[in-house]
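Entry type: protein chain
Record version: 2
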Amino acid sequence: MNRISSPSQILRCAFISLLLLPHPTFSAFEFAPTSARSGGTGDNFVAWAQGTDALIWNPGATVWNGGIGVTAVYDRPFGVRELQTSMAGIVLPLRNTALGLRFEDFGYALFREQTIGVTVAHRVRERLGLGLTLRSLRLSAEGIGSRSWVVFDLGARVVFPGGVRFGMAAWNVGGKKMSLLGQGGMAGVGIEVSPGVFVLVDVRKESGLPTGGGAGVEFEMGKRFKFRLGAGNQPERFSGGFGVRKGMVTIDYSAAFHSILGISQRVSLTIGR
């Protein structure tokens, strides 16, 4: 576990946590998107995510995965080492069903969050996928101790003719310990407005917070390179990123700029189609 070496680091981490946390003891990255690909579009990805990206974004979209997929993500929010997040995940397709597993770790000396998520998704029809994720969440805080919960999330994805995609997801559907774990949902649409140009729009709502959302765009530049731009709020951010693919391997990078907190960077490695 990382140690905070000076009072200034403690104050900085506390300040960032206060800005990011919707509730006093609510983790800064509860159900947080950690994909570098989504980060480049301003974290507007509930309709566009599939395969390993969907383990975070939309359980119903994990079934859209061409073979076994494996991913690893590193997120360093606003350049602060003590707030770093890492995630590893795998998706195994079984005909019209997919099984997924992910592990997330976020934290520093004063606060730590670890999550294990198990996802089951099924393609009910050719264009409709439904999914369920069970999450075991453990929170540890200095002076408070640790607590654990198991919650569940739901997701659905529809692919319409013409490549229009609609996605929706709800987290902590049972509302367990809402003041601590948060509860809410999001919906989004992705449209190919011209060959190789995709526009993504999301709306999200969490209990006790204003409605938020944003928009992003992804440009395909051949089969190997993608460029992304986006904007969103909660927290407010402008972002950009790119992805490079070689065979079965994809590396994505994104950077988001917050007007107060500065730059947040993510990088991810994905193996699969």
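Comment: Confidence is low (pLDDT under 50) at residues 1-12, 14-31.
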